Amino acid sequence: MVKKIKEAYDRIFKNVFVCMRCNATIKANPKKVNTKSIYCRKCGINQLRPKNAERRVVSVATASPPSGDAKPSKK
Ligand SMILES: [Zn+2]
């Protein structure tokens, strides 16, 4: 089961990059991205970041709850 999830995760996020300017997702070969030969088909720049990294950042941000305003006890 876990292995299947891992495979699906790889299939969805492997070789997928996100445009730094317009956040479009682009499927591409990492080697080609490293050599900057992949361009965003929306805005045309070649600054892409891996989708995996974005997911990690989001999970860290949501893991720490906001302090103070979240408590509904004070009315
Ligand atoms: Zn773009």
Structure description:
This protein is an alpha+beta fold and 75 residues long. The chain has a domain at 2-53. It has helices spanning 2-13, 30-34, 51-63; strands spanning 16-19, 25-27, 48-50. The protein has a three-stranded antiparallel sheet. Strand 1 (16-19) and strand 2 (25-27) form a beta hairpin. The longest helix is centred in the last third of the chain and has 13 residues, at 51-63. The chain is flat and about 55 Å long. The protein starts with a helix and ends in a 12-residue tail after the last helix. The relative contact order is 0.15. The structure holds zinc ion. One of its GO terms (biological process) is translation. InterPro entries: Ribosomal_eL40_sf, Ribosomal_zn-bd. It comes from Huberarchaeum crystalense. This is 50S ribosomal protein L40e.
Query: What gyration radius follows from the Cα positions, in whole Å?
Result: 17 Å
The main sheet comes to: 3 strands, antiparallel
Shape: flat
Bound small molecules, by name, code or SMILES, are:
zinc ion
The level of helicity is 40-55%
Measured between the Cα atoms of the first and last residue, the distance is 46 Å
Roughly what fraction of the amino acids lie in strands? 5-15%
**Average pLDDT number:** 80
Number of strands: 3
SSE arrangement, N to C: HEEHEH
Return the structural class.
alpha+beta
User: pLDDT below 50 for ≥5 consecutive residues: which ranges?
Assistant: none
Strand sequence of the main sheet, in spatial order?
2-1-3
Please work out how many helical segments DSSP would assign: 3
